[in-house]
Design a protein that fits this description.
There is one protein chain. This protein has 171 residues and is of the alpha+beta class. The chain contains five helices and seven strands. The chain has one domain (30-159). The strands form two sheets. It has a five-stranded mixed sheet, sandwiched between helices. A two-stranded antiparallel sheet has the order 1-2. A hairpin with a 5-residue loop joins strand 6 (135-141) and strand 7. The model is unreliable at 1-13 (pLDDT under 50).
Length: 171
């Protein structure tokens, strides 16, 4: 067994058994606040933008299948839809909807959207590139009265000041 000093995140065992695995005492981050902020942002957008709604699981699957996309791969790649036709039943292709991915912050950004920081998945980026005007990224600040900006992939590219790729790996 290898012994590492994990500093503050491992409690020292008082057991006389040195083979005992150290106990991790640092808790994993609680994402409850992030989920609350995201829901608040989605509600704000729905209230402000005509025709925007949060799709059900079945509606997501229907749209993705209609677009020829794998629902298992892309189901979480957009948060909201905007209908460009009077009803969901009239959606026959990408020209009838806009998919919207929402990125939310609760930070005060005096020159919104300058200094807005967010992460984006490869699937979200792929959909933006594939659907152009029919996929919007919504940058939304829930600070104060709330501000938001809807961007296409081309509009986003013009505003990007710094980009880095990060891999998230699960074992």
């Amino acid at each position: 067994m290898c012994n590492f000093d994990f500093g503050c995140c491992v409690a020292k065992s008082k057991s006389p058994n040195p083979e005992k695995t150290p106990r991790v005492t640092r808790k994993m981050p609680d994402n409850t606040k992030n989920l609350r902020t995201e829901k608040l942002g989605l509600a704000h957008l729905i209230k402000k933008e005509k025709g925007v709604f949060e799709p059900t699981k079945e509606q997501r699957q229907h749209i993705l299948k209609l677009l020829g996309l794998d629902p298992r791969k892309f189901a979480r790649s957009f948060d909201a839809l905007r209908l460009l036709v009077p009803s969901f039943e009239q959606v026959k292709g990408p020209q009838h909807i806009q998919m919207i991915e929402i990125k939310v912050t609760s930070k005060h950004l005096p020159n919104f959207p300058d200094k807005f920081f967010f992460g984006m998945t490869k699937n979200e980026e792929d959909l933006m590139k594939l659907f152009g005007e029919n996929f919007k990224l919504c940058l939304l600040s829930v600070y104060g009265e709330g501000k938001y900006l809807l961007l296409t992939q081309a509009e986003l590219e013009k505003r990007i000041k710094n980009r880095r790729i990060q891999y998230q790996i699960n074992l």
